[in-house]
Amino acid sequence: MKIIGHSDAIKKIKQAHRITFLTGAGISTPSGIPDYRSLKGVYHGIETPEYLLSIDCLDHEPKKFYDWI
């Protein structure tokens, strides 16, 4: 992988037709996108979302799994 300098990066970004940024956890909430696990998150009040999204739920309670998905 070639490492480029700051000015080269700016030039490539300006010339690009499309740009994709890959980020990690923690970037969405400050941007106004709700997270999943906090008290105000998407999963708040949902019965054990980790289970509902698991292979165990799919195997043992497929209706519940697919209703959630």
Architecture overview:
With 69 residues, this protein is an all-alpha fold. It starts with 5 loop residues before the first helix and ends with a helix. It is elongated. It has one domain (6-68). Helix content is 39%, strand content 0%. The mean pLDDT is 84.
Distance between the termini: 38 Å
**Helical amount among residues, as a percent range?**
25-40%
Shape: elongated
User: Average pLDDT, to the nearest integer?
Assistant: 84
Portion of residues in beta strands equals: under 5%
Task: Please count the beta strands (DSSP E, at least 2 residues each).
Answer: 0
Can you summarize the main beta sheet? none
Number of domains: 1
Summarize the structure.
The protein has helices spanning 6-15, 49-52, 55-60, 62-68.
Write the layout of secondary structure elements.
Layout lengths: L5 H10 L33 H4 L2 H6 L1 H7 L1
